Amino acid sequence: MYPFSFTKVSDTREALQAGRRGGRYVAGGTTLVDLMRETVERPHALVDISALPLREITVTERGGLRIGALARMAETATHPVVRRSYPVISEALQLGASAQLRNMATIGGNIMQRTRCTYFRDVTAACNKREPGSGCAALHGFNRSHAILGTSDHCVATHPSDVAVAFAALEAVVHLLGPDGERGVPIVEFLLRPGDTPQREQALRPGELITAVEIPAHPRPLKSGYLKVRDRQSYEFALASAAIALHLRGGVIREAKVAAGGVGTVPWKLPAVEQRLIGERPSAALWADAAARAADGARPLAHNRFKVELLGRTVERQLRTLGGTR
């Protein structure tokens, strides 16, 4: 680990000042500290923001949900409003990491976490995300766990967050505070596809701080849930996952929100699946037909072609679980 300075701040003004000077924000530290230990990340200054008043979870005036950036994964997953109104969020959080990590990791840190690609974390391997212009060892290496959607010739690493998939499905907005004031960015625009700049992963401006993630109000009743398929049952990242929310009224699907994880360079919204569902009555045939569109545009690699079928099966299974069959 390389030398660095450490500052603990108690209000957002102090945090922004430190961030403006190039300090890296840290709260739970469950990702950044690991990367520093492995010398993948070498920040010259850390700014501890864990004391900032950004842990509240509240219902908004319009009936949505606002989750403070420093709310812990564990407390968010068990919050009664989250469990009652958005089980997809609760389930995604409970299926991520270990109990110990969930007690430390924050919501803001979770969506900011960097890929678990082994080539990214191996400082001897070529990785455009870690060292722009060095190449991507995963393209022609062992790429079973890598992305099939949103890839580029420069990067095929998956985004590791489970709850970010739920946020993408629910069309969440990331609230930011920086030197230029406050702004909100839809999460599907906040997390960036690699393109030809894979080292730039979020739409953050210099010195900006995540203050909250807001879920807009959705019509009720809303059935939602998260399904994660992985190699083992605990402490493992997704090979494919599906976050789905359905609003049914009069036996007809009025709204459908669907996103996938484990298969994309970012949490992957599935508009073709959503469009196929809206206006239809639940049935086994509908679930199968909609799920067949899940991997549209996929670009599988040598070792992850199985993800095309796995993604469709994962989406179909979760649609059956939430919507029933006849």
Automatic annotation (TrEMBL):
Question: Which molecular-function annotations from GO does this UniProt entry contain?
Answer: FAD binding; oxidoreductase activity
**Record's keyword terms, sorted:** Oxidoreductase
Q: Which InterPro entries match?
A: CO_DH_flav_C (IPR005107), CO_DH_flav_C_dom_sf (IPR036683), Diverse_Substr_Oxidored (IPR051312), FAD-bd_PCMH (IPR016166), FAD-bd_PCMH-like_sf (IPR036318), FAD-bd_PCMH_sub1 (IPR016167), FAD-bd_PCMH_sub2 (IPR016169), Mopterin_DH_FAD-bd (IPR002346)
FAD-binding PCMH-type domain: which residues?
1-220
Q: Which PANTHER family match?
A: OXIDOREDUCTASE (PTHR42659:SF1), XANTHINE DEHYDROGENASE SUBUNIT C-RELATED (PTHR42659)
Question: What name does this protein carry?
Answer: FAD-binding molybdopterin dehydrogenase
Question: Which organism was this protein described from?
Answer: Streptomyces colonosanans
